[in-house]
Amino acid sequence: MEHWLNSVPVFLDHMAKVDGCATSHAAKRLAQYGPTAGIVAGLIAAQLRADERIECDPEQVVVTAGCQEALSLVIPALCPAPGDVMLARNPTYIGVTGVADFAGIEIVPVEPAGDEDWACTLARVTAKLRRAGKAPRGLYLTPEFDNPTGTVLTEAQRRSIIAGCGEHRIVLLEDNPYGMFRFEGVAPPPMAVLDDAGCVVYLATYSKTLCPAVRVGAAVVPKRLFGSADAAERFRVELCERKSFVTVNTSQVTQALVGGVLLREGGSLRAIVEGPRMHYRRNRDALLRALDRAFGTQGDTVQWNRPNGGFFLGLSLPFDFAQAQTAQCAREHGVIVMPMTFFSLDGTHRREIRLAFSNTDEREIEAGVERFARYVETQASLTH
User: Fold this and answer.
1) Is the pTM of this model over 0.90?
2) How many whole angstroms separate alpha carbon 334 and alpha carbon 326?
3) 8 A C-beta contact, residue 214 and residue 257
């Protein structure tokens, strides 16, 4: 952390050079209120280009107080009228449902049925909603190592989603906090890279690549929203206006910290995340080994996925696991796991849980799985 704090002077020198002023004057400006859209948009655009292949101009970037603020700005802006609804996969990130709930906006679960592709799914759901007098305005997705499931959308799925959103004028919110933490395999292009419909608003955050306390993120608006540069600019301006009444501007001190890191690292975070990436990979591997030891003979009743990156995986159980079971497991076995019902939009996924492997170590993972296995064994015996 001290290394990151020492990056602030790096940004001050950069700021002074760009503005043609003394460093002391730049420091005084840093301590004041700043432009609502932020002071590191150009550096963020350069980092997205270097690390994610996303081509965007600084003018497309609205710097926010973490990705959570970006969601709290974008979702109400997309759904201003009664009957406007958001779409999301089910289960989904609880930060999205929280924003929607506080704003009084309905979130509708959307998922392909059978062999249906995403474009057909969006057509089917859109038609159903419009018959009910509702209008889908946005679709929230974490296509890379989804929270809570740890799953990844293929390139074909991403292209099908973009086609459906373009056809039905649904703005796609691509949240990508975990994309730089891939352990193996080749990453599909971000949806913002594939976007030929002008429908993707890319949501970035430095809470995972640097640290949660930084609270710097961004919303990147497409150059042409559904083909219109004027519509894109109006939407960006609206986000800035909303932000001006919520947080005025993102802390310039934390922006300077992020900006200094990006300058010092040559515009890329690849080197910085390499250590944490390998740590998360070791934890993922430790969790998979522990699960195999504990449940390897119960493949017909206890199953889990093997994520190629990120922080989470999903596990299915032979019995319901919800809030009461969470408390019981913590109280009697000293381990807390997250039921998928906490992330569910409709009360389903009652026999699934999320396991996180990021902020821990291998010994804690092994001990936690052993304790959880004892709970599962006890509960399974009671259901037979």
Assistant:
1) yes
2) 10
3) yes
How high is the mean pLDDT of the chain? 95
pLDDT single digits (tens) 94-116:
999 999 999 999 999 999 998 99
Which domains can be identified in the chain, with CATH numbers? 2-268 (3.40.640.10), 273-382 (3.90.1150.10)
pLDDT in tens, 370-382: 999 999 999 877 7
Q: What is the pLDDT of residue 78?
A: 98
